[in-house]
Design a protein that fits this description.
Blueprint: H1 6-15, H2 23-34, E1 56-57, E2 62-63, H3 72-75, H4 78-88, H5 99-102, H6 107-121, H7 152-198
Antiparallel strand pairs: 1-2
Helix pairs in contact: 1-2, 1-4, 2-6
Amino acid sequence: MSQLNDIAIFSALKQAGIPSQDQPAFYALAISEATGDPNATGPVIHSNDCSNGQQAIGLFQIVLACHPDVSRSCALDPVCAAKKAYAISGNGTNFSPWSSFGNQTYKDAFSKGKSIVATLYGITHVTDPITGSTPVLGGVQKAGQDVLGIPGQLAQAGLNKISEVVKSFAPIALLAVAFIVVLIMALAELRGKAVQEILPVPKSQ
């Protein structure tokens, strides 16, 4: 299997059951750790823990010796590996096992991942797993997206419904305006007649 494109990676994340708001972080993990290659194998690790002399493998660079519940075939399968990576991270709360999050090289891929979920799901507020910040995508609120916490698709549907209602009442509004205009003209005419009746008629000389 060759390097996965963005659509394939997000498809794997979705199939793995990772919540949409957490997907940018795991997209960043797949890109920054394995360049999107589900068969990626990292260098031999030299450390004082379970990873010493081992290699991280797969799209999410899992060290099998440190996670005996993860088989090699699972680590090399994007969906299975995504499920395990999500569990290893404490459901998206701890990315310390991966060096790209420690040295901040995940950031560019994370930013791209946020843009992708904004397009896919209308989500513009995504929490950075390291800094904990939740900046709005692009620094501005996009129309129809995440309005008052409502996902973009729902917000847009609401706006469309309001537009339909307004359009349906447009003919009634025009009739009401026409009626008011006619009423004003009628009242003006009646007032004119009343004034003529009240004012004395000039006597002829």
